[in-house]
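G., before I forget:
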Amino acid sequence: MPNQRLVGSRIREKRLDRGLRQASVAETVGISPSYLNLIEHNRRRIGGKLLADLARVLDVDTSLLADGVDGETLDQMRGAAASVGRTVEVDRTEELAARFPGWAALIAMQAQKIAALEERGRVLTDRIAYDPQLAGSLHEVISAVSAIRSSASILVGPEELDQDWQRRFHENIHNDSIRLADSSEALIAYLEAPEGVLEQSGSPFETVENYLERSGFHIAALEEGATPAQVLKEAGLEGSPKAVLREVLNDYAQGVAQLPLAKLEKACRKHNYDPAALAQFFGVPLSVVMRRLAQLPPGKGHPPMGLVICDAAGALTFVKPAPGFTMPRSGGACPLWPLYGALSRQHQPIRMDVQMPGRNGTRALCFALAEPRAPTTFDAPPALQSMMLVIPDPPEPAAEPHPVGVSCRICPRTDCPSRREPALKGMDTQTVL
Amino acid sequence: MGKRVLLIEDEPNIIEAISFILSRDGWTVHTHEDGTSAMDKVLALPPDMIILDVMLPGRSGFDILRDLRGHDVTKQTPVMMLTARGQDKDRDLAMRLGANLFMTKPFSNTEVRDHVRHLMEA
């Protein structure tokens, strides 16, 4: 059971929440305080009657202690609450998720789907507002309709019209009606979405990430010698997503050339996935190692690693999620992430242990680095980008991790000086913290 | 001779219809189809009132309106925008630039005629 190792932590958290002493709880359930202490520090496995007794004493559902809830689902549920902008029992999110995991997964999934649909709506709205071809077609239709309406109105008006004028306006209506038919047909043809276009109607970055996610962000074909052009053709993307993917594939292929998979995997185990040690070992830039670590094949025993890249404005241009470390695609991420700190310290790698909110908030080891993504030139600002490699649950976590969050709206750290907007009501409770 | 209305519009059949309506109502209607040379036409007349389209060949009606309001001869001339671009942002821009009225296409002949009468009397 993936969360078994945290059962003790959850028992401790609930006991402290209720202000109960370890000794009194131990006595009530018939065990020694020292044994309860071992349980609470996850040094003894627990289940069955003892777990049920502890749940009863702590006045919680047994499943809440046994199963817990993964942080990502909780973040998505809180995000869903934040998006509706009305009061919901955010402080009981964990309880809801523990008691009804199916419903929790449904809420999280629907929140993701709504976010994707909203993004699609935004893209389509932009298309309607700014697409010059669509604007031109609509203008043509409205112009023809206006001319027909005005001419017809003259013809049916109460005032006398001589035959010459009647003939001219009849001709005009005839010509404009032909023009209207043609322009309407062209408009409908333009609006008819070709197959697959809806799947690509998110932002180009998300479309590319969806494509990469199918293979766990590992592209076996490139690892085995295929060219970026071949993979790009196979991907079947068009327009902006295709352009974004082309850049991603070119970077990927360069990384493969510098760090072939077999050598990288061997060295990773020797150097314990330390990006700095690997960069030194291979004599390649740190950024290449960070990208390659995030491209290691899934299911081969490598620790899961996320990668997030932003531009100089802080906009996320690449997101490979890491388990338990939610990366919001829209609305702005936590400004405390070292990803952003690196932007003001170009070329200086940052290594930082961080922890998401909550007593059991995900711990992660982050490596961040900002540098120009293209050669610099005189009299022009460098095209900066910052990247952050995220390794959740590091084997040797720091004693004092830096507190970070997902995004301000669902972050309970009320005293954070970097906060840019208030948290959703209910996020500032001790239960969440 | 009636007061002069200049219709700056590039759709021939709309030009013909509006010219007919306003002429019958007693106005002397001049027309011009090109955005680039529209200001030259305005200054050569100059008209008592202008009906101005937005999407014109060569130059936008908004740019022409900005020039009209910046010129001593035309800064007080009533201008009625008549456009297929009926979004709020277009209306706001037109009014900020100094349009007296903003009408969207398709339009009613009666409304056009009444608005012209009203603006000329104001």
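The interface with chain A takes residues 11, 13-14, 16-18, 20-21, 24, 55, 84-85, 105-110 of chain B (CB under 8 Å). The mean pLDDT of chain B is 93.

More on Monday.
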